[in-house]
TrEMBL record:
Keywords, ordered alphabetically: Membrane, Transmembrane, Transmembrane helix
GO CC terms: plasma membrane
Residues covered by the Ammonium transporter AmtB-like domain: 15-380
Major localization class: membrane
Protein name as it appears in the record: RHL protein
Topology term for the membrane: Multi-pass membrane protein
GO terms, biological process: ammonium homeostasis
Gene name tied to this protein: Rhl
Location(s) in or outside the cell: Membrane
Record flagged with keyword Transmembrane helix: yes
Gene3D superfamilies noted in UniProt: Ammonium transporter AmtB like domains (1.10.3430.10)
InterPro entries documented for this protein: Ammonium/urea_transptr (IPR029020), NH4_transpt_AmtB-like_dom (IPR024041), RhesusRHD (IPR002229)
């Protein structure tokens, strides 16, 4: 590669070495309970498969960014899980809480790092490894901060506060993305091929299959209901995605981008209430509405809102995760009102808890994301030039890519 390009040997390896050295030292003071866990290993595997395989392959739709999509996703996930476990340990120490068993701790950490995997989608192809690593550490810290406030002051259950991961990841990444230059409108690198779309859909299918485990893994009560409701919400959102894809395309054919973005929307929307919904038709309605929002939202956001705010959302995390998460938070409030309608003296108080948690989460995500975007664009971190967006060759030994460029 020409010498004018930055050599990441001078900073990325040393940053990783520094972080690992810190993690190892801090883990020296960490202990875990090896007794029987409340979470089974197969369920933990499901969540791990989602984050590694699912998100890793779902981001491979860019024709020249497949190595980076899967490779960098693995890097930030394993670093983020270590960071998340240590932050949980620190909070347990400061608040004098009893440490949870090891499998539950690493499962919660993996769920938390989903926020980073989602955020990567909005800045995909525009950030270098050093920026991604720094973004991972900062985002994990702020997500835990928002969770701690929700748990401590609003008394939000732990499993519900973790379901804010989609909301936080989506709006954190949009705020970060607003600080990066938009790619050239004439650039052909920000495009997909049939092969890259197929690999991306493979990742989406991994996410789809394991999403019921994700929504139910930390549910203390109603675990079976969470699995049941999540499956039906996903099923209806998938069917609706195919229907809307045909209706909204000029030639009346299915469009892979519609299916890719909307089939998961039901799982996101039902996350807050999956364990408490009593009837499957409610989950099915959520799945239908979330898919409509994802498909139609992609048109509105890409044509109106994103250009006005100067946001380039590479993989469409806003309408894939952000808007369905907002719908899920609204559904949580509506179902809470219906369930406690007769308890009018406490109804206002009960409603303010999820509303407050939603407002807090999205506020922390936007503010921390905007500040993180400013920091990542400092010259110290060697911002990728716009001309080199979406290129594997900028980072990987991949000689045959040079042919036909």
């Amino acid at each position: 590669m020409p010498s004018k390009y930055p050599n990441f040997r001078n900073n990325v390896p040393w940053l990783i070495l520094f972080l690992e050295a810190v993690f190892i030292v801090l883990f020296f003071f960490s202990t875990y309970d090896a007794s029987r866990s409340s979470i089974s290993y197969p369920v933990f595997q499901d969540v791990s498969h989602m984050v590694i395989f699912g998100f890793g392959f779902s981001l491979t739709f860019l024709k020249r960014y497949g190595f980076s999509s899967t490779g960098f996703n693995l890097l930030i996930v394993v670093l983020g899980v270590q960071c998340s476990v240590l932050i949980e340990d620190l909070l347990a120490f400061l608040l004098q809480r009893e440490n949870e068993d090891g499998l539950k701790r690493i499962t919660k950490a993996t769920v938390s790092v989903t926020a980073v995997a989602i955020s990567t989608g909005a800045v995909l192809g525009k950030t270098n490894p050093m920026q991604l690593i720094l973004m991972t550490v900062v985002e994990v810290m702020f997500f835990h901060m928002s969770r701690w406030i929700n748990n401590t002051f609003l008394q939000v259950p732990d499993n519900i506060s973790l379901m804010h991961v989609h909301l936080f990841g989506a709006y954190f990444s949009l705020a970060v993305s607003s600080r990066f230059s938009e790619p050239s409108p004439t650039s052909k690198k920000n495009a997909s091929t049939s092969k890259s779309d197929l690999l991306s859909m493979l990742g989406t299918l991994f996410l789809w299959v394991f999403w019921p485990s994700f929504n139910s893994v930390l549910a203390m009560d109603g675990k079976t209901k969470a699995i049941y409701n999540t499956y039906f919400a996903l099923a209806v959102s998938s069917v609706t995605a195919f229907m809307l894809s045909v209706l909204t395309t000029k030639d009346g054919k299915f469009r892979m981008t519609h299916v890719h973005s909307a089939v998961l929307a039901g799982g996101v929307a039902v996350g807050y209430t999956a364990h408490s919904i009593e009837y499957p038709w409610i989950a099915m309605i959520l799945g239908l509405l979330s898919s409509v929002i994802a498909v139609l939202g992609s048109y509105c956001l890409e044509r109106c809102l994103n250009p006005a705010l100067k946001i380039h959302d590479t993989s469409g995390v806003h309408f894939t995760f952000g808007l369905p998460a907002v719908l899920g938070a609204l559904a949580q409030v509506v179902l809470l009102v219906i369930k406690n309608w007769t308890n009018s003296p406490r109804l206002g108080y009960l409603v303010m808890i999820p509303v407050g948690a939603f407002c807090l989460t999205i506020s922390v995500a936007l503010i921390s994301g905007f500040i993180t975007g400013l920091i990542l664009n400092l010259k110290l971190f060697k911002t990728v030039p716009v001309s080199k967006y979406f290129e594997d060759q900028f980072y990987w030994e991949f000689p045959h890519l040079a042919v036909g460029f």
